TrEMBL record:
Entry GO MF terms: ribosome binding; RNA binding; translation initiation factor activity
Gene3D superfamilies: ARM repeat, domain 1, Winged helix-like DNA-binding domain superfamily/Winged helix DNA-binding domain
Domain of life: Eukaryota
Cellular component terms per the entry's GO annotation: eukaryotic 43S preinitiation complex; eukaryotic 48S preinitiation complex; eukaryotic translation initiation factor 3 complex
Family assignment from sequence similarity: Belongs to the eIF-3 subunit K family.
Function text: Component of the eukaryotic translation initiation factor 3 (eIF-3) complex, which is involved in protein synthesis of a specialized repertoire of mRNAs and, together with other initiation factors, stimulates binding of mRNA and methionyl-tRNAi to the 40S ribosome. The eIF-3 complex specifically targets and initiates translation of a subset of mRNAs involved in cell proliferation.
UniProt protein name: Eukaryotic translation initiation factor 3 subunit K
Length: 219
């Protein structure tokens, strides 16, 4: 029977404590936890993944590129947090040029630079490994939606569809509703844009003593 999130917390606590995090005997357990993460979209633990990556660095004979790719893809799901860069920084140097690792790093770069067409094209190339990470595409689409929310007041439906990997019309309509957007005559009206550009009134509370000090200093 597979362990639950609560059980994994109990398992990981001693593993990630003190010098024990450098024990190579923990590699197999941490790899199993990576598999648990990729099967459960809401589960993600950067500390555990960094510890495993560090163990690979110290024990190159245990290096598992499939597990590494899964950790990197999970870190992309955490955008805008820059977790992928942290994981890459402790990846053994001789593995940073691995073809799959380079592709996943490029996926993140395309997202961070809002090069969505290039991103979705590369997703097709990485289809096999991405298919092993449940919820990856949904997480990315939600991240793109956040960018759209803070960038656009309105956006044409075809443009938004392309940003979201050529999302079909019916799916796009449902996606718009879930994000609080409205579609009218081929244009998507983004929720919250008015609040973002509306000037805010700032009220400052100044006590009597502060005012007295200011007046005294001008005499």
């Amino acid at each position: 029977m597979a362990a639950s999130s609560e059980e994994w917390t109990s398992i990981l606590t001693p593993i990630l404590s003190g010098i024990n995090r450098y024990n190579p005997n923990n590699i197999e357990c941490l790899e199993m936890y990576v598999q648990f993460q990729v099967e459960n979209p809401s589960v993600y633990n950067l500390e555990a993944n960094l510890s495993l990556m560090k163990l690979y660095q110290f024990n190159p004979n245990h290096f598992n590129v499939d597990i590494v790719c899964k950790m990197l893809l999970k870190s992309i799901m955490a955008l805008p947090k820059i977790h992928l860069a942290l994981l890459i920084s402790v990846l053994p140097l001789n593995q940073q040029s691995n073809e799959e690792v380079v592709k996943i790093n490029s996926l993140c770069s395309h997202l961070e630079s809002c090069s969505f067409t290039e991103f979705w094209s590369l997703v097709e190339e990485c289809g096999e490994i991405i298919s092993k990470v449940v919820g990856f595409k949904d997480a990315v689409k939600n991240y793109i939606a956040e960018l759209v929310n803070i960038t656009y007041q309105t956006i044409p439906v075809p443009q938004l569809s392309s940003y979201l990997g050529n999302m079909p019309e019916k799916e796009l309509e449902q996606f718009a509703v879930s994000n609080g957007w409205k579609i009218n005559d081929g244009v998507v009206f983004i929720r919250g844009q008015e609040e973002l550009i509306k000037p805010k009134r700032i009220l400052a509370k100044i006590d009597f003593e502060s005012v007295s000090n200011i007046i005294s200093s001008t005499r």
